[in-house]
Description:
Blueprint: E1 2-3, E2 6-7, E3 14-16, E4 29-35, H1 43-47, E5 55-62, E6 65-83, E7 86-93, E8 129-133, E9 142-146, E10 160-163, E11 172-181, E12 184-189, E13 202-206, H2 213-218
Antiparallel strand pairs: 1-2, 3-4, 4-7, 5-6, 6-7, 8-13, 9-12, 10-11, 10-13, 11-12
Amino acid sequence: LVFDGLTFRAGSGLDASALQAGTGLSVDNGQALGALTAASVSEDDIRTGKFDRAEVRQWLVDWTRPDLRVLLFRGEFGEIRRSDGAFEVELRGLAESLNAPVGRTILRSCDRILGDGKCGVDTTRPEFTVETDALEGCAGSLVLVASLPEFAEGWFQHGSLTWLGGANAGERVSIKADRLVNGQRRIDLWREPSWPVAAGDGLRLVAGCDKLAGTCREKFANMLNFRGFPHIPGEDWVTAYPKDGANHDGRSLRRS
């Protein structure tokens, strides 16, 4: 069955349970079960995150006249579990996003993601990103690259690595640590690449940010856009009281 430029196949290995639908702002949800097959959804697809938050639509269609149809459900994949050649996925309706907390958290550290609209740092600038190749095949979450002497040790910690070539092309992983050892740069990732890495696989490194005010000022020269509260009082200020001989003229306690 074909409409809207999409092909719908029968017996594709996905069986959705009855969806709960309600009026108002109540959340529509459900479950779907499927077989892990090369023809539809494979185990590698699930493992590499290909269908994370995938869009889902359920239609009621007259198969003799596909133009006669009604959209019954629209949402996205939630949590995915796989075992014994099958997978189970939670289906979340559009109203699910209304359950997310809205507002800011008062912290000393910044609450933005490096390079987003409110941060404003251009991570494509040459001082913040570089493209290079893996020096050799690696096992686990360790990747070896050239020393890249123009970047200080730890420059890419908390940043990201995006594979540009090889079996993992297009995959993006967060960087746990960035160290210089024996003339090489050792990049430790928070998770292993989905596929084995071979020597010569291209990759892009992007500098990391630890969300602290000093890093924002010295590394990125972006203190004007810092979204944290570095001068928020600590817990000891809760029990503080006026002392004889101390300044009580309203001046900052952090400045002389």
